[in-house]
Design a protein that fits this description.
Elements: H1 3-9, H2 25-34, H3 40-43, H4 63-70, E1 75-80, H5 94-109, E2 113-114, H6 137-154, E3 158-163, H7 169-182, E4 186-189, H8 190-193, H9 219-228, H10 247-257, H11 261-270, H12 283-286, H13 302-326
Parallel strand pairs: 1-2, 1-3, 3-4
């Protein structure tokens, strides 16, 4: 095709129309604009919900913003979470989502970086439920320690390790100990230091309702989710679980519910363990829904979730302020 013929095929249009029988690029564009076709900027917006930027949340930050934060703080919150079943009504990411949301709330009131590292945790006892992902504790702690070392290279020194999944308790303590023993960093298990800053509750109000066993996926986690991630809760799907505990564990359950600390320690040492251990206490072996409790999760309220979340966030902020008093940012090596 010659240059002249090529130019002719793209000849400008007069009055928005080409010669009879021919459309040009310019004519098509003119017709599209005249017919109300959405603008290119509108057409390029994702149909997914918009992501709102959150202050001090590492995945949302630019390099200059991290550098600017380092001028004020050397502190990081690292949530340690899981991807595991939470009954019929809560998302598999409940622990990750709720842990990260709490960390974000803390970071709105204190200069501290929120750095999520992994979604999965150690959850082998939930593997009979579709969607659960579990990792060995050795791998989990190695990843978190290496991530902390990366942040240390940029200038962060103090780490608040926030365990958002009960099954990660021992792993979280080991991560904290490795950071303190093997690196220039300083770490604390955030859940373990909040006690002195939590509100002291008075006597429990009298209730005609008997105390009920209510743990994984029960009213506590449901209440937190109703407050922190309500769009992801399907409360209509919540039903009380039917539990089948080994006889000796069933016999100690009243003492557990009554608050006997020894009974609880023995109960948890055996309960919720990998099916491969032969203990008969994996989630699927004990619960019809995956919830480990007999109370109806639908009894949960967003108000309870708000109160418990705010108490935790208040305590964390108070601890951070006290730590900054004892060791101001930039002091030490």
């Amino acid at each position: 095709m010659t240059v002249s013929r090529l130019r002719g095929s793209f000849a400008p249009v007069r009055s928005g129309l080409a010669r009879p029988g021919r459309f040009t690029i310019f004519g098509l564009l003119w017709i599209a604009a005249a017919s109300g076709t959405p603008s290119s900027s509108a057409a390029q917006q994702s149909p997914l919900p918009r992501v709102e930027k959150v202050r001090n949340y590492l995945p949302h930050m630019t390099v200059p913003e991290v550098q600017e934060l380092l001028g004020r703080s050397d502190m990081v919150i690292i949530p340690v979470a899981s991807l595991e079943q939470h009954g019929l009504h809560l998302p598999i990411g409940t622990d990750y989502l709720n842990g990260v949301e709490r960390a974000k709330l803390i970071a709105q009131r204190a200069d501290v970086l929120v750095a999520p590292i992994l979604l999965p945790g150690q959850s082998p006892y939930h593997m009979e439920f579709a969607g659960t992902i579990t990792l060995p504790s050795t791998l989990i702690q190695e990843v978190y320690v290496e991530a902390a070392k990366s942040l240390m290279r940029h200038g962060f020194r103090r780490f608040l390790v926030l365990n958002a999944h009960g099954g990660n308790a021992a792993t979280t303590r080991f991560i904290v100990d490795r950071i303190n023993q093997e690196t220039e960093g300083i770490a604390v298990d955030l859940g373990g230091v909040l006690g002195p800053f939590m509100p002291r509750s008075g006597a429990e109000p009298a209730s005609d309702e008997p105390a009920l066993f209510d743990r994984h996926g029960g009213t506590g986690e449901t209440a937190s989710s109703l407050y922190l991630t309500p769009e992801l809760v399907d409360l209509e799907a919540a039903v009380p679980a039917l539990l089948t505990l080994p006889p000796h564990m069933d016999a100690m359950l009243p003492a557990v519910v009554a608050g006997d600390p020894t009974a609880l320690a023995v109960f948890l040492a055996e309960g919720l363990k990998d099916q491969a251990t032969g203990k008969g206490t994996s989630a699927a072996e004990m619960s019809t829904t995956g919830v480990w409790g007999v109370r109806d999760p639908a009894d949960a309220t967003a108000e309870r979730g708000r109160a418990e979340t705010e108490a935790m966030v208040d305590a964390a902020v108070a601890f951070i302020e006290r730590w900054n008093q004892l060791r101001p940012p930039g002091t030490g090596r």
